[in-house]
Amino acid sequence: YSIVALTISFLLATSHILLSVSTVNKHKPWIETSYHGVITENTDVVLLDPPLVALDKDAPIPYAGEICAFNIHGLEAPFEAVVLNGTSGEGQLRARGLVDCELQKEYTFIIQAHDCGSGPGGTEGKKSHKAVVHIQVNDVNEFAPVFREPQYRAAVTEGKIYDSILQVEATDQDCSPQYSQICNYQITNTNTPFAIDRNGNIRNTEKLSYDRQQLYKIQVTAWDCGQKRALHSVPVHIDVKPVCKPGWQGGKRVDYEPGTGSKQLFPKMQLETCDIGQRECCSWVLEKSMRIYLLTESNYWSQNLDTGMSMS
Ligand SMILES: *[C@@H]1O[C@H](CO)[C@@H](O)[C@H](O)[C@H]1NC(C)=O
Ligand SMILES: [Ca+2]
Ligand SMILES: [Ca+2]
Ligand SMILES: [Ca+2]
């Protein structure tokens, strides 16, 4: 009898164990429905809000009430989720590689928690519902402003005040407005008659004189809104043009002794036409202007105007 009883009780016990094994993992883990994450580029830890924690009502039963994994759906997402503590269900989201804000600013993917199943090996494991994770990549100020042109050149007419002689522009490759917008331009030379505003417009602060200086060479630098300065300043050349005063330059008076033969008239004289490149086109103007000049400024020569004078 005792052997039979023992066998029966053994069988009962076995069936009870089998029964309890197949029903022990009753609940799937639970997580929030959505998470918002922030990661700073070039680091690997994602700060999640709310924190990643999976709960399982089977706890504290081993395996069935423990969290074994967080799975990410979305292969292109360079993130992984690791279980920090299977008992508490705490997890952490990390970048698998370097996250570059300049390449991609945001990521969205799905995360799911898995419990450890009914025993070793994870059979009969249950999955939580799918939660959406939205991650924003924070910028680091890695790039300095760079000017669009290697140098700038402009011309002004003497005696005038300009609101803007020219505009320089620098750009910056960072991904956020704070670190990519240009907040400030500055002329690095001291004592120049020029000023620059926040938009890169260069103006003159006083009237310029062609006689005093015909060319100004200044250097301009730029800062992004994170206070990072351009590595190289840019040269800006400003030509000063004379105001248009056409007339004879270089000869005011020639003395001539009657009877001493021919003499070169005003050897250094030249016509200022304002348009320097077109001086050669106007030889007839030269002659006519010469007559006018001679008549108005040198009546001494005016009588002899048509008597074989030469001019070099
Ligand atoms: C895991 O979490 C449980 C429950 O919160 C805690 O008792 C245990 O100390 C934690 N283990 C580690 C290694 O932190
Ligand atoms: Ca469970
Ligand atoms: Ca920058
Ligand atoms: Ca950056």
Automatic annotation (TrEMBL):
<dbReference type="GO" id="GO:0007156">
    <property type="term" value="P:homophilic cell adhesion via plasma membrane adhesion molecules"/>
</dbReference>
<keyword id="KW-0472">Membrane</keyword>
<dbReference type="GO" id="GO:0000139">
    <property type="term" value="C:Golgi membrane"/>
</dbReference>
<keyword id="KW-0732">Signal</keyword>
<keyword id="KW-0333">Golgi apparatus</keyword>
<dbReference type="GO" id="GO:0005789">
    <property type="term" value="C:endoplasmic reticulum membrane"/>
</dbReference>
<keyword id="KW-0812">Transmembrane</keyword>
<feature type="domain" description="Cadherin">
    <location>
        <begin position="148"/>
        <end position="248"/>
    </location>
</feature>
<comment type="similarity">
    <text>Belongs to the calsyntenin family.</text>
</comment>
<dbReference type="GO" id="GO:0050806">
    <property type="term" value="P:positive regulation of synaptic transmission"/>
</dbReference>
<dbReference type="GO" id="GO:0005509">
    <property type="term" value="F:calcium ion binding"/>
</dbReference>
<feature type="domain" description="Cadherin">
    <location>
        <begin position="31"/>
        <end position="147"/>
    </location>
</feature>
<protein>
    <submittedName>
        <fullName>Calsyntenin 2</fullName>
    </submittedName>
</protein>
<keyword id="KW-0325">Glycoprotein</keyword>
<feature type="signal peptide">
    <location>
        <begin position="1"/>
        <end position="20"/>
    </location>
</feature>
<dbReference type="InterPro" id="IPR015919">
    <property type="entry name" value="Cadherin-like_sf"/>
</dbReference>
<dbReference type="GO" id="GO:0009986">
    <property type="term" value="C:cell surface"/>
</dbReference>
<keyword id="KW-0677">Repeat</keyword>
<dbReference type="GO" id="GO:0045211">
    <property type="term" value="C:postsynaptic membrane"/>
</dbReference>
<keyword id="KW-0256">Endoplasmic reticulum</keyword>
<keyword id="KW-1003">Cell membrane</keyword>
<keyword id="KW-0628">Postsynaptic cell membrane</keyword>
<keyword id="KW-1133">Transmembrane helix</keyword>
<dbReference type="GO" id="GO:0051965">
    <property type="term" value="P:positive regulation of synapse assembly"/>
</dbReference>
<dbReference type="Pfam" id="PF00028">
    <property type="entry name" value="Cadherin"/>
</dbReference>
<keyword id="KW-0770">Synapse</keyword>
<keyword id="KW-0106">Calcium</keyword>
<dbReference type="InterPro" id="IPR002126">
    <property type="entry name" value="Cadherin-like_dom"/>
</dbReference>
<keyword id="KW-0130">Cell adhesion</keyword>
